[in-house]
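Q: Structure tokens for this one, please.
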Amino acid sequence: MWASSHAVRVALALAGLVSPLRAQQSDDISRLIAALLGDTPMIRDLQQLTDEVGGRATGSAANLKGVTWALAKFKEAGVPATREAFPVPSLWLERGATATIRGPGIEFSPRVAAMPYSVATSPAGRRAPLVDAGHGTEADFKALGEKAKLAWVLVEMEELKDIEGMFKEYGDAAAIEPRAYAAGALGVVYMGSRPNDLLYRHNAALWAANIHPGLILERDGAKRALRLLRAGKPLTLTAYLDLQTGPAYQSYNVIGEIKGVAHPDEVVVIGAHLDSWDLGTGALDNGANAVMVLDIARQIQRLGIRPARTLRFALWNGEEQGIYGSLGYTKSHAAELDRHVMATSIDIGTGKITGFFTGGRAEIVAAVEEALKPVAGLGPFTQVNAPIVGTDNFDFMLEGVANLVANQESANYGPNYHARSDEFHQVDQLNLRLNAAILGAMTLRFAEMPVTWKRQSRAEIEKLVASTDLEQQMRMFGMWGAWVKGERGRRQ
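A: Here is the predicted structure, written as tokens:
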């Protein structure tokens, strides 16, 4: 399945891509790199996780199956692992979603997907006028005026082509939905931003606080509706949203651990989220990186490498619903956080790693570059010293723990993000193995190298928030209120 791995290892060796370190550590890192580039079970694991377990929305039966699967994989690898419970504030799963658009002599039923945290409709559905809200700007809603009241407002979206477009969608939605509801809209209907009528899921901008129905409408159907509306045809939309919702419940992270031999109370965390949305099978987001974390643990254990510090391999859950799994970890392991040396997250598919987001902490940039030296030939690597919100580094950052997020080439991540097309065949298997070598080597270095930084205080975190765009990012992802209320983040 990985016939070219030997050739890749030979090419790396001949090119001198693995830099020398102290003898024992250099040998351990070289052996780990070679192992991760070889015929490990990683790709076979990913195919099992995606094709057999399937999409793993937190709260679903498939998600619990994924937890059991991951525990079994750690056990097979000889790596001790535990299932750690954490609370999720509310349950949201889609059972079914349909819509019909009607007008004078007109009727068609484009495919739709409910937005996570949308409210359900009655069994009869919810019928209301469908109106053209343009691109959802202030000027568009001003022009729409009274027509927005108790109507479905249809928002035109640009086609999404890359990660930058993905973040723009989040930022736009954070402004569009409050405008729509201030104008009295019944619900927001977004034109699908993906070609070929791909459906996908994005959380409602207000997340769990949302009290309105919301839909993604396939792109061609939305274009048809807009053409009709702009030709003066009155339309209605009837949406039927069958949703499974409920109060707070427990979900589970899976945490593997290899105990440190010299400093067992000092911890290095590497993690990726196991959960996904359920239209596809979550291969790029984020199954590929979850099995990579698992494989790094497997190979370190198989090779008998014993790091100085304890390594924890975290498969997070509840990430898509609001980054609740890693939040739960920071709460249940609060007494240990002073001794957490680094927490690394990877969550941008299988594009080539180009460096790391270092969280706006200048004091760790040099350490990251030092940790990457063993794999310098797989670079170049450029660090981006800025905080980033949207994945499982977030609560480590708000708790003052040094944290990294892998920065990756966009590759095919953006168009397949949260989409029906996020399937096994989208994965770049070569890049996934090269990324595993990078992260494996870096993680081992953090387990051994001198630490010149420490956990930040509340005052230092507040300074980071004030001096960067963290507030804007937290607002965009619905996290600002929890920080202000002290529900997330270090308190002193």
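A few notes: The longest strand covers residues 91-103. DSSP finds 17 helices and 15 strands in the chain.
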